[in-house]
Design brief:
The structure is a homodimer of 328-residue chains. With 328 residues, the first copy, chain A, is of the alpha/beta class. In chain A, the strands form 3 sheets. In chain A, strands 3-4-12-9-10-11 form a 6-stranded mixed β-sheet, with helices on both faces. In chain A, strands 7-6-5-8 form a 4-stranded parallel β-sheet, sandwiched between helices. A two-stranded antiparallel ribbon of chain A has the order 1-2. Chain A has helices at 12-22, 35-41, 59-69, 72-75, 86-98, 112-120, 132-146, 157-177, 193-205, 221-228, 250-259, 268-282, 292-299, 301-304, and strands spanning 2-4, 7-9, 31-32, 44-49, 79-82, 102-107, 124-128, 149-150, 184-188, 210-216, 262-266, 308-313. The first copy, chain A, starts with a strand and ends in a 15-residue tail after the last strand. Chain A has 2 domains: 2-58 and 156-327, 3-Layer(aba) Sandwich (Rossmann fold); 60-150, 3-Layer(aba) Sandwich (Rossmann fold), CATH 3.40.50.1100. In chain A, helix 1 (12-22) packs across helix 3 and helix 8 packs across helix 9. In chain A, strand 9, helix 9 and strand 10 form a beta-alpha-beta unit. The longest helix of chain A has 21 residues, at 157-177. Chain A is 45% helix and 16% strand. Chain A binds chain B through residues 30, 32, 51-52, 56, 276, 279-280, 282-286, 316, 320-321, 323, 325-326, and chain B through 30, 32, 51-52, 56, 276, 279-280, 282-286, 316, 320-321, 323, 325-326.
């Protein structure tokens, strides 16, 4: 870690340390290819399948790094977060592996399946009202009562160092199994945890690889921030890619503004089409948020044609009873 | 091949030859595991993922062996079959790779998506009425007009030798990546092509491995044949596992009666539940027919507990707009 004007920024040493630390708790997920999608896009696509990851998402990398990096003294009070998504699930999984408590504050309106999934990994769910004020109030109370360590879903250097292990693995797998490196990597952007980790890794060990972030048209705050040169946060955006609604924070903004080549967007219909196409042709279950990169590639073929492109499939936690193309 | 009382039976030499022949045209599909499903069943399950196979199913192994085994003289008239499922798709794929015609007779009532998929691989579709008489009439006419070589979906020694390459790969992958052999293999049974290939391979190179066939309760003709000691064919059975409705024929019956340990069945609801569970936990798209083995394992835990079990996931060609749990 290095301190830059009071901001604690993870470094390459933190990534190497994180990788050793999380290895026993995560899968080395496969890199898949599809001759059909290559022909369709004119690019060579290499899908890093974090939908096959423990707890069903890349988030387990950062969460495990935070949980297993705690001293025994710190760890005994457990960890806490507010999230109704993959970070909550991943933190509960990692805390369960270490045998420490994991407190999750979730709006009472969150789907029961998500609450049950967190509880299934041993997480302790506290329900708040669906407002920022209520969430902060409940979260402060949980922290005060338990002394648990707060692990933010993305604006945390330990989390970013953990997510950075994903592109490190991808580069190793490219050299070992796919005949060489990449011209570009593309990943979805919400709060920017995965993209920041990707920036940290690539800027260190493969600085010529371009980094693209993919975002829904309907929650394009990162793209607008990128063009404006400062963080713009949307108020309650609505998109099918529901993992990507959260705004950038100062730590992820630092990586995005320094290392990202471009942020490209796709419509909700394009995202749904790309999601369905991937399920149909690659036979894998992935989240709507994970389909945004392919949707962006299909919308901007000229950017990617002829290139070797790593595509991060961020997660596979889907409500199979409620698929987006069934509602259209 | 050996001639036993007029029946041409494939031998181990045919499997080795088939494997060399089909290798350039198929994927060496991965073997996946799930700690969740292991805990749930008490067994160690190794899923051979033919849903990731070319054309989306194991059938491409047998179809490619038939197509690429033809002499140039024979090949020029192309191949023909009657099927509205994965065999038609696979034969069209293989014929396309060799650049020869593939004629498929399909009932006009078959889903448009299936006709389109065959045409997408360059297959020539002839529509018949949805009756056996009409199908045979149209098929005879196509054969007469084209001189195409008939490749039966399963009752063909070339096809069985091709399917046998799947369990050969599985055993190799077990030794290489999963620390040793298997106690049992389980695969779905419809006409018995996959099971016959599995019997041929295992009885030759791993004769101690038990072979289980998995069948829907509602199309349990193979299970009843097995107990009766002769082929029983059902008239138009109805089951969600629609790839498994066809009856055994003399060549597959030969392998089933000689080498299969048992044929176990599961209800349609159990099949749907196993299918959904696999999608949810393993994040892979597989057909309802491919879920029958897991459904059978969950119904008969005492048979499989504590065992190392290879599970053949036969295919991943699913109508994503019409999932079976959406209709229940």
């Amino acid at each position: 870690m290095k301190d830059v004007n009071g901001m604690i920024i993870p470094t390459w040493d933190d990534v190497i340390e994180a990788h050793d630390r999380v290895c026993p708790h995560i899968h080395r997920t496969p890199v898949l290819t599809s001759s059909y999608l290559n022909a369709l896009t004119g690019a060579q696509l290499f899908f890093k399948c974090e939908n096959f990851q423990k707890a069903g998402a890349f988030k387990v990398r950062g969460a495990s790094n935070a949980v297993f990096g705690l001293s025994d003294e710190m760890a005994k009070n457990g960890v806490a977060t507010h999230s109704s998504g993959n970070h909550a699930l991943s933190l509960a999984y990692a805390a369960g592996r270490r045998g420490i408590p994991c407190h999750v504050v979730m709006p009472r309106t969150a789907p029961q399946a998500k609450k049950d999934a967190v509880k299934g990994y041993g997480g302790i769910v506290t329900e708040c009202e669906p407002s920022t004020t209520s969430r902060e109030e409940y979260f402060a109370r949980v922290q005060e009562e338990t002394g648990a360590d707060f692990v933010h879903p993305y604006n945390d250097p330990r989390v970013i160092a953990g997510q950075a292990t994903c592109s490190r693995e991808l580069l190793e797998q490219m050299e070992q199994d796919h005949g060489g490196g990449l011209d570009a990597v593309i990943a979805p952007i919400g709060g920017g945890g995965m993209i920041s980790g990707t920036c940290l890794t690539l800027s260190t060990i493969a600085p010529d690889v371009r980094i693209y972030a993919a975002e829904p048209d309907q929650a394009d705050d990162a793209a607008r921030s990128f063009r404006a040169g400062h963080i713009i946060a949307d108020d309650a955006p609505e998109t099918v890619a529901d993992g990507l609604k959260v705004p950038l924070k100062e730590l992820t903004w630092h990586f995005v503004k320094t290392h990202v080549t471009d942020i490209l967007t796709a419509s909700d219909q394009e995202i749904i089409d790309a999601m369905r196409l991937t399920w149909q042709r690659m036979k894998i279950v992935m989240e709507s948020s994970s389909a945004v990169p392919l949707a962006v590639i299909l919308r901007n073929p000229e950017v990617f044609a002829g290139k070797r492109v790593g595509v991060v499939i961020t997660g596979g936690n889907v409500d199979l009873g409620k698929l987006p193309w069934m509602q259209h």
